[in-house]
Every structure is written in C-alpha cells, then in structure tokens.
Amino acid sequence: MAKGHRSQIKRERNAVKDTRPSAKLSFARMSVQKACFVLDAIRGKDVETALGIVTYNPRYASSVVEKLLKSAVANAENNNGMNAENLYVAECYANKGPTMKRVRPRAQGRAYRIEKRMSHITIVLDER
C-alpha cells in the first residue's frame, strides 16, 4: 500500500518534471492502430531520418505525424535552446481518444453503428 496521504503522493509525482521537448496532438481523426504504423517506423531515429521517413510514407497518418514532428523540433530549438542536428525521437505513442458514433441504415429497417475513432498522438524528443 502507498505511503502518505493522497495529496502528498500526487505532489511527489508531479514534482518530477520532464524537461524533454515534446509536441502533442489531441483528437486526431484517425484510429490508434493507423497512427502507430507510422510512429513505429520513426521511434528511436534521429530527426532528419524520421522526417525523411514520414515525408515519403503514403499513409494519411504520416502527414499528421510530420507536422507534429516539425512542431516538436521547433519547440526544442525555441524553448529549450537545443540544436536540431543532435535530436532524436525518444518516445512517440498514440493513446485512444473519444469515439464518435454514427448510424448507417441497413436492409429491412436495421441500423449498423459506425465508430469514427480518434487518438491523442505524442512525440517526445531528446538530445544525443
């Protein structure tokens, strides 16, 4: 069992702040599975290689991830004063977001549900 009061535990957990540059896109209109195909390809690569991969990847998610990666690099340069040549993709993941539920009419008065899934995509960079 945890030691201390709940507020004390939260305070200790929030005291450790991650200073690595990152970018997050919430409510991206694609499923987690489709976003992860592109994210798995760039994980651990340096920024130049990762940008090359997502630029020439034919998937729709790659254009979204490319924009997010450029944003993370800009955050690293402007906010943290890091050099873009030394950066690499330390973490990248997609979490499940809310699902929009729609109805598709079918034969004999039935209705099938269509689920339009969303995801929250995060890219975290670090220096070598």
From TrEMBL:
Does the keyword field hold Disulfide bond? no
Which residue intervals are annotated with compositional bias (Basic and acidic residues) in the record? 9-20
Entries under Gene3D superfamilies matching the protein: Ribosomal protein L22/L17
For this protein, the record's InterPro entries field holds: Ribosomal_uL22 (IPR001063), Ribosomal_uL22_bac/chlpt-type (IPR005727), Ribosomal_uL22_bac/org-type (IPR047867), Ribosomal_uL22_CS (IPR018260), Ribosomal_uL22_sf (IPR036394)
- GO cellular-component terms in the record? ribosome
Q: Pfam families of this UniProt entry? A: Ribosomal_L22
Origin superkingdom: Bacteria
User: What CDD domains does the annotation carry?
Assistant: Ribosomal_L22
Stretches the record annotates as Disordered: 1-20
The family database entries (PROSITE patterns) matched by this protein are listed as: RIBOSOMAL_L22 (PS00464)
Task: Tell me which UniProt keywords the record has, alphabetically.
Answer: Ribonucleoprotein, Ribosomal protein, RNA-binding, rRNA-binding
- Record carries keyword Cytoplasm: no
What's the family?
A: Belongs to the universal ribosomal protein uL22 family.
* Record's subunit section: Part of the 50S ribosomal subunit.
What NCBIfam families does the record tag this protein with?
rplV_bact
Question: What role does it play?
Answer: This protein binds specifically to 23S rRNA; its binding is stimulated by other ribosomal proteins, e.g., L4, L17, and L20. It is important during the early stages of 50S assembly. It makes multiple contacts with different domains of the 23S rRNA in the assembled 50S subunit and ribosome. This protein binds specifically to 23S rRNA; its binding is stimulated by other ribosomal proteins, e.g. L4, L17, and L20. It is important during the early stages of 50S assembly. It makes multiple contacts with different domains of the 23S rRNA in the assembled 50S subunit and ribosome.
Q: What is this protein called?
A: Large ribosomal subunit protein uL22
Species source reads Roseburia yibonii
